[in-house]
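Appendix B. Raw example, untouched.
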Amino acid sequence: MEKALVRISFFHSVKNIDFQLPKGRVYNYNIGEVTNMGIRDEYNFEYLVNESERLILEELERQLGAPENSAVCHCEDCVLDMAALALNSVRPLYRVSLMGTLYASALEGSPEAEEAKAAVSRSVKKIAANPSHGD
């Protein structure tokens, strides 16, 4: 009885099994479509960036470091609540390309940056008045 070396490969959502027998013969068997491969397995989503998130987090850091907000709670729950509240009130600005990166760097001082500043200010005031931890 011949023993077979088995190699399983995945290429463009098709599962193939190649059997290589000791005498060098290769047999390929196509099993069919792979149904459990999702879009995240096919594409790199690390390049998909929401510039509104960057603007909000930079502004939140600036405002929380300001002397007038020294009494505001800086615990993780409160800061995350502030960020989430501010992010939910601004328009998302996604980018995926080099041109998008260049566009994003031009956002400083733009209406989007001013909107982020106002959203963070509102969220800091609201969460400071109603912290989620009840202290």
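End of appendix B.
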